[in-house]
Design brief:
Elements: E1 3-6, H1 12-25, H2 32-44, E2 49-55, E3 58-70, E4 75-85, H3 94-108, E5 114-116, H4 123-131
Helix pairs in contact: 1-2
């Protein structure tokens, strides 16, 4: 099994390729250079926590979490925004390892919990998340406003 560790700036070439594949999965145009810039800014500015699945210096997957806060809970929460494992390494439990590391972060930071969102059509994700202890929120509606500018 791969080790799960924090991503560093040295991971950027491999991480950007994974991130780009993740974005393409969600129907975005490939943009490796844009991915490098985006991830570099997150890492350098300490704006997210990125964990990578590393097996013999090859990155097989990653997850990226962003800090948030809950006013009603008066605590930090984490948004598990991105989770991706290379196709040829799926069904090895790597996604579950990455999610477990995210849960450890939430515990370590005394966070109220972790929020995530996935498309209704993401069959694999919609099986994975309940299997790792996430519960679908039936009581809230999530809305999105898009800046057209």
């Amino acid at each position: 099994m791969p080790s799960i560790r924090f991503a560093t700036i040295n991971d950027l070439p491999q991480l950007a390729k994974l991130f780009d594949l993740y974005r393409v999965f969600y129907r975005k145009q490939p943009d490796i250079e844009g991915a490098k810039i985006f991830l570099s800014e997150r890492i350098k500015n300490n704006e997210s926590v990125i964990y990578v699945a590393d097996e013999e210096n090859e990155l097989l997957g990653f997850t990226q979490l962003y800090p948030q806060f809950s006013s009603t809970r008066m605590k930090r929460t984490w948004l598990l925004n991105d989770l991706f494992v290379l196709q040829e390494h799926r069904e090895r439990g790597i996604s579950k390892q990455l999610i477990e590391k995210a849960k450890q972060l939430a515990i370590k930071t005394n966070a109220a919990g972790i929020l995530l969102e996935t498309e209704k059509t993401n069959i694999v994700g919609n099986k994975l998340y309940p299997a790792t202890g996430f519960v679908i929120n039936e009581t809230s509606n999530f809305y999105w406003w898009q800046n057209e500018g």
